[in-house]
Amino acid sequence: MEAKSYPHELFVDGRVSFGASITEANLIMADGKSLEHAGVEPDIAILPTAQDLAARRDPVLAKAAGLVGSVLSPEEAGNAFKDDDK
After folding, report:
1. Are 72 and 65 in contact (CB under 8 A)?
2. Which residues of 39-70 are buried (b: 16+ CB within 10 A; e: fewer)?
3. Who contacts 21 (Cβ-Cβ below 8 Å, separation ≥6)?
4. Cα–Cα distance, 71 to 64 (Å, whole number)
5. Distance CA 49, CA 59 (A)
6. Distances (CA, A) of 61 to 11, 24, 28
């Protein structure tokens, strides 16, 4: 399901913020079924190990990059995003 958020504010003795999330689309698969309450299963299961996390390696992102034709090592993938804690 796809929803759109509609934020609102009222000013009554101060500001009151609230919103609504309205469903606007439902993805229907080729077999005619919705993914709602069904989900999907991955074709390839890859989980980083504790050692990967400690060494800042990301084998999952490296594999995903390879599937779309890019070459990215797990070490490069682990440093692909800026870490504000450094």
Report:
1. yes
2. eeeeeeeeebeeebeeeebbbbbbeebeeeee
3. 3, 4, 5, 6
4. 10
5. 9
6. 46, 31, 28
18: left (phi over 0), alpha (psi -120 to 50) or beta: beta
Enter the pTM of the model: 0.53
- Among the listed residues 41, 43, 45, 61, the one whose alpha carbon sits nearest the alpha carbon of residue 53: 61
Question: Would you kindly state where each structural domain of the chain is located, as residue ranges?
Answer: 1-40, 41-81
Residue 49 to residue 55: CA distance in whole angstroms: 10
Q: pLDDT per residue over 13-71, tens digit each? A: 899 999 999 988 888 888 988 878 877 788 888 999 999 999 999 999 999 999 999 99
Q: Which among 44, 52, 47 has a CA at the least distance from the CA of 73?
A: 52
